[in-house]
Amino acid sequence: AQSVAQPEDQVNVAEGNPLTVKCTYSVSGNPYLFWYVQYPNRGLQFLLKYITGDNLVKGSYGFEAEFNKSQTSFHLKKPSALVSDSALYFCAVRDPASGTYKYIFGTGTRLKVLA
Amino acid sequence: DADVTQTPRNRITKTGKRIMLECSQTKGHDRMYWYRQDPGLGLRLIYYSFDVKDINKGEISDGYSVSRQAQAKFSLSLESAIPNQTALYFCATSEGVWGGETQYFGPGTRLLVL
């Protein structure tokens, strides 16, 4: 069965420092992986995705994520955090080999960037 | 995303009432979805539609129904609302390669069932 885990409910980081938001997954085949961000009173916005190819994926607003098959992880990173990055971040996974349409979203990680 | 709109944005209703949440999109996408978001649970798929004639149940469809009136419109109904349907509801659309498509979300409808 597909699953995705975001082990940290909240991550605090100082402005200017690098940030990492963790995501691990479990699928039977090769995964499709996504990161979305949710700002207060807004819907989710797409940040980046991994479908195939280069394990390092670059996305919007300076974010990137690295697909690590051996560790079944897809951590979101940014070299220098901004206060405006403070938001709720969701990882999502889909197993295209499952034969069903089903995206599994993580429970979300709240990122707080401190000035 | 302003291309996906939801009405109402907030709704308070009573147990047993029938209510409808509406979603419209101007992105021209065929695929549309309804999710609910609960604290600590992430997003869960209620229904999805790949075109006007194709509607499918998601993982938590009990107590909900949908109508795809046109390519641009996808409505979610709660036939007889109950308190545990209190949640934040999102409509979304998508484009791209099957399974790997990017989803575009509306601003959400916050529903409170008393």
Q: Please report the distance between the alpha carbons of the first and last residues of chain B.
A: 29 Å
Q: Detail the poorly predicted runs of chain B.
A: none
Total beta strand runs of chain B: 11
Structural class of chain A, by secondary structure, is: mainly beta
Q: Identify the overall geometry of chain A.
A: globular
The helix count of chain A comes to: 0
Order of helices and strands of chain B: EEEEEEEEEEE
Biggest chain-to-chain interface with counts: A-B, 21 and 25 residues
Rg of chain B, nearest Å = 13 Å
Would you give an account of this structure?
The complex is a heterodimer of chains A (about 120) and B (about 110). Helix content of chain A is about 0%, strand content about 50%. In chain A, the strands form 3 sheets. In chain A, strands 2, 5, 6, 10, 11 and 12 form a 6-stranded mixed sheet that branches. A 4-stranded antiparallel sheet of chain A has the order 3-9-8-7, with no helix packed on it. Chain A is globular and about 45 Å long. Chain A is an all-beta fold. The N and C termini of chain A lie far apart (about 40 Å). Chain B is mostly beta strands and about 110 residues long. Chain B is built from no helices and 11 strands. The N and C termini of chain B lie far apart (about 30 Å). The model of chain B has no long low-confidence stretch (mean pLDDT about 90). The chains are: A mainly beta (about 120), B mainly beta (about 110). At the A-B interface, strand 5 and strand 6 of A face strand 5 and strand 10 of B.
